[in-house]
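Convert to structure. Protein one:
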Amino acid sequence: MDREILYILHFLPFRKLREIIEYKAKLKRVKVIYVNPKDTFKTCHRYVYVIQTESREFKSPKCGLVYNRDLNASIKIVMR
């Protein structure tokens, strides 16, 4: 992404961002679904195993899977 766009998104209030996404989705006739992100970064997307992590890396003690914490959370949200 362009640095300018990232800068704007960084300071954009969450509600305004949600309104923009809804507007653009409506133009393209795409359905917007809201998902509760609770505990998505603390649970393995393969197994429901909760861990506490301070680093950016997620390592599942059950299956040994190593992922970026944000990527793991994104996969969990898609699965919901």
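Protein two, convert as well:
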Amino acid sequence: MASKSIRSLDSSNEKIDGFITCSAVAHSSTANLGPGFDVFGLGLDAFEDVVTITKTIKIRNSIPSINLTCSGKGTETIPSELSENSAGLVVRKMIYDFNLNKNANWDLDLHITKRIPIGYGLGSSAASAAATALAFDGLFNLQLSKSQLIRYAAEGEIASAGTRHYDNVSGSLLGKIYIWPSQSQLWMSP
């Protein structure tokens, strides 16, 4: 069933002594749609991933450390190295682009709760990347547009597909059906 809502654009941000936590949800998706293979992206409300990012405040400024953990069925096959993980690549890119990597007074804990079956063509890596972009945006109050969130989430697809794919991450973030005729254009269904 196609996802009808943009519920996945909701994130929650909670401040507790010494740390701030932001969680986001992204839905499953598919981009294996006949002649629209890797061009069409369709959001599905069948499954979802949840990403929680916790920013712990440090006493001294230094280069931030980022810890990545996963839970859920099949997560033992998911790389825990940031440079090999779809969520890790998103965080690294966003930290770099927003110049947050120098003299930071925080560390990050990134936790992925996998609820989308891995390896079934349901956009499992795209959902993790999409939820990560959304949670990071909320945590640092970046107020990114939907298009910017999609572009950051697509960065995570490099880990699983070897290149940026906008089709699955569009469906995971926004629901409905999307067409990416090129990397610079997006057509959204009404």
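The longest helix spans residues 124-139. The chain has one domain: 8-28+46-162.
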